[in-house]
């Protein structure tokens, strides 16, 4: 398996790595198991001290690691620094809140008495080594939103990161070690995808979490199911962005541009399908298209760049094929749609109108700065279009009518509904999807409890 840093802005290979062999993988599995035996007995205060220190170090490193991220996967460097800052914030949040989130719970006294007990507790205990299979698009954040709660719960982590971000993966292992965590608390495994199955089958690995593609999720879930191991999956998304007549149209169009092109459009929770009521469709389309045209595409190390290159040549090819298929089937290109000349895997912000259900881009996730516009006759049709997807990660609704908002919250098939705002993850709120966007939740109290043994402790009278 090719594990390397290849700069998406010019296609040049910066650094290559040899995958770890069987002996090194075995050594690390042994270390994870041994470390867990002692780490699980540490107190919340001890874990919080270490995690706070990791957050402080990450904050100090954000400029340097931001440049590494941009070199490896191409996001504008200002967004890479912001990602590092967000990770530090999440670490601090879990360090501050884990003890409360995982505190012993006491059932209602009448239920305790009815059970014949003198006392009953529900206790959250760690599971053990957890395998995390993580993607390249948010190479720090995707890992930290697993690692921070897992470590605070008393688990230890094994990271299989995407093969195009090895320097970021190794940085994360070093970060936790510098913060004072025992060596085996968090380890990076430089391995290819083919090695995941055998590691997941190992009895020392107690659970797995994956953020990535639907095929990768199916593979991990299949093996974990066979081995009867807990998994959390966050897969693709084709999030709807609904605009109704009562919306603040200028604000909705402005936010829509960011919602579609954040991280160069390579985000599972990026808005992708823009469903606009016919009364305001033309006005919104004009504003939105103008905003997309105005974005600056270029060198991701330039502080003024809005949209960088896609992470890989294959990623750009896949996106081009979706656009070409839509155009052949009758879609109209309002802006963009053609790759620029020159080195690097750039693709312009693109808006397509006239989408129908037979086009691939209607059914598949467009992972890049390509937006699709839909015209809805009324609220009912907007809901139908929004739900006409196999995905269900998040959703966005713009309306100042409370009854409309309530209807969308009730009927949209998604893990989140953002009203008059853009989808964003926050450590205090649960994050995850339904349908083929996966199952389980990350972040918040729900996320930290996913990899806990929820134990009933019963004391006789």
Automatic annotation (TrEMBL):
<dbReference type="InterPro" id="IPR016163">
    <property type="entry name" value="Ald_DH_C"/>
</dbReference>
<dbReference type="InterPro" id="IPR015590">
    <property type="entry name" value="Aldehyde_DH_dom"/>
</dbReference>
<dbReference type="GO" id="GO:0036243">
    <property type="term" value="F:succinate-semialdehyde dehydrogenase (NADP+) activity"/>
</dbReference>
<dbReference type="GO" id="GO:0004030">
    <property type="term" value="F:aldehyde dehydrogenase [NAD(P)+] activity"/>
</dbReference>
<keyword id="KW-0560">Oxidoreductase</keyword>
<comment type="similarity">
    <text>Belongs to the aldehyde dehydrogenase family.</text>
</comment>
<keyword id="KW-0521">NADP</keyword>
<dbReference type="InterPro" id="IPR016161">
    <property type="entry name" value="Ald_DH/histidinol_DH"/>
</dbReference>
<feature type="domain" description="Aldehyde dehydrogenase">
    <location>
        <begin position="3"/>
        <end position="457"/>
    </location>
</feature>
<dbReference type="GO" id="GO:0102810">
    <property type="term" value="F:glutarate-semialdehyde dehydrogenase (NADP+) activity"/>
</dbReference>
<dbReference type="Pfam" id="PF00171">
    <property type="entry name" value="Aldedh"/>
</dbReference>
<dbReference type="InterPro" id="IPR016162">
    <property type="entry name" value="Ald_DH_N"/>
</dbReference>
<dbReference type="InterPro" id="IPR044148">
    <property type="entry name" value="ALDH_GabD1-like"/>
</dbReference>
<dbReference type="InterPro" id="IPR047110">
    <property type="entry name" value="GABD/Sad-like"/>
</dbReference>
<dbReference type="GO" id="GO:0004777">
    <property type="term" value="F:succinate-semialdehyde dehydrogenase (NAD+) activity"/>
</dbReference>
<protein>
    <submittedName>
        <fullName>Succinate-semialdehyde dehydrogenase/glutarate-semialdehyde dehydrogenase</fullName>
        <ecNumber>1.2.1.16</ecNumber>
        <ecNumber>1.2.1.20</ecNumber>
        <ecNumber>1.2.1.79</ecNumber>
    </submittedName>
</protein>
């Amino acid at each position: 398996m090719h594990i390397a840093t290849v700069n998406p802005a010019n296609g040049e290979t910066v650094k290559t790595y040899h995958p770890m062999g069987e002996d090194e993988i075995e050594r690390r599995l042994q270390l994870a198991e041994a470390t867990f035996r002692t780490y699980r007995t540490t107190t919340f205060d001890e874990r919080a001290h270490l995690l706070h220190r990791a957050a402080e170090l990450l904050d100090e490193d954000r400029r340097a690691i931001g440049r590494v991220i941009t070199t490896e996967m191409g996001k504008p460097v200002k967004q890479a620094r912001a990602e590092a800052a967000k990770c530090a914030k999440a670490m601090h949040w879990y360090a501050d809140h884990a003890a409360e989130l995982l505190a012993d719970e006491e059932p209602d006294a009448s239920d305790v008495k009815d059970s014949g007990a003198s006392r009953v507790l529900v206790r959250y205990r760690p599971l053990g080594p957890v395998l995390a299979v993580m993607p390249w698009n948010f190479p720090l954040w995707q890992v930290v939103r697993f690692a921070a709660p897992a470590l605070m719960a008393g688990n230890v982590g094994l990271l299989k990161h995407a093969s195009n971000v090895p320097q970021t993966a190794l940085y994360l292992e070093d970060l936790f070690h510098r913060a004072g965590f025992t060596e085996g608390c968090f380890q990076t495994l430089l391995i290819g995808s083919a090695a995941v199955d055998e590691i997941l089958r190992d009895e020392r690995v107690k659970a797995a979490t994956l953020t990535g593609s639907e095929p990768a999720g199916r593979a991990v879930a299949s093996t974990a199911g066979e081995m009867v191991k807990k998994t959390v999956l966050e897969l693709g998304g084709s999030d709807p962005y609904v605009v109704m007549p009562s919306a603040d149209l200028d604000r909705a169009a402005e936010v829509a541009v960011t919602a579609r092109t954040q991280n160069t459009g390579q985000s599972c929770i990026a808005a992708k399908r823009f469903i606009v009521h016919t009364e305001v469709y033309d006005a919104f389309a004009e504003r939105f298209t103008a905003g997309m045209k105005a974005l600056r595409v270029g060198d991701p190390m330039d502080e003024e760049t809005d949209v960088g290159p896609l992470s890989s040549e294959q990623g750009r090819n896949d996106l081009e094929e979706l656009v070409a298929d839509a155009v052949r089937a009758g879609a109209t290109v309002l802006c963009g749609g053609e790759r620029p000349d020159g080195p690097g895997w750039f693709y312009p912000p693109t808006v397509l109108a006239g989408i129908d259900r037979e086009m691939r881009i209607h059914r598949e996730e467009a992972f890049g700065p390509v937006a699709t516009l839909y015209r809805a006759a009324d609220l009912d049709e907007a809901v139908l279009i929004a739900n006409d997807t196999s995905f269900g990660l998040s959703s966005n609704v713009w309306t100042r009518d409370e009854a409309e908002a309530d209807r969308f919250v009730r009927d949209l098939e998604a893990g989140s509904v953002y009203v008059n705002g853009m989808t964003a993850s926050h450590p205090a709120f649960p994050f995850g999807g339904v349908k083929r966007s996966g199952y389980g939740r990350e972040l918040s109290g729900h996320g930290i409890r996913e990899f806990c043994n929820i134990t009933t402790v019963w004391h006789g009278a």
